[in-house]
Amino acid sequence: MIAASLTGSGQGRPIHLFLKTVLDFPRFFACSLAEVLLNTPAQLSLPLYLPDDETFSSFWPGENPSLIAALKGALNQQHGSYLYFWSREGGGRSHLLHAACAEMSARSEAVGYVPLDKRTWFVPEVLEGMEQLSLVCIDNIECIAGEPEWEMAIFDLYNRILETGNTRLFITGDRPPRQLNLQLPDLASRLDWGQIYRLQPLSDEDKLQALQLRAGLRGFEAAGRCGTLPAEATGS
Fold first, then answer.
1. Hey, which of 5, 41, 91, 196 has its CA 20 to 30 A from 174?
2. Mind listing the pLDDT tens digit for each residue in 174-211?
3. In a 3-state reduction of DSSP, which class is residue 120?
């Protein structure tokens, strides 16, 4: 089981996963691990790599300029802050968290990224000490609703971040905080503080613009403005 997730490098943006119990290595190697480094018999450091192409410059904002501005503003502040945003699955929330990690990593700041949809690979102790980082991103918080250990671990981390006042905390979910069906009322209340945004879905026109943007960044020329999207891209 993994017990922590950190990064602080400008090259490839590695996410370090520290293990305190036995790891299922075949399962992990299937997930594109770049390397495995043995630090001590009790702890392994496993650098994972975030997608290099998921940055703010590769994200088409659509109707979300306020959210993008809020994220960038929080990253540029010298003090801690909390921001929650939500969207349906595939709406781009992980992209924006990856972008935030990339932004801070490029400044040689230490960041933590915790994808809760992958929580079977690690334990709640992953969050211990993360209040010392410049940025903590918790992705897909809806996945731990009803899991007391995880809910308490996130609640405790939130409180530690409030005490230190130096860490930016970004959390994403698939619905507003009050609709997450959390068992811990205090966590639901905490998540309802601060800035909360809905990541608005892209219109068909915006999807075309996003497609052209990503194609251009890859050195390709996308279809013209009069092009059409494939059915799976429009959700039809």
1. 5
2. 999 999 999 999 999 999 998 999 999 876 785 787 67
3. helix
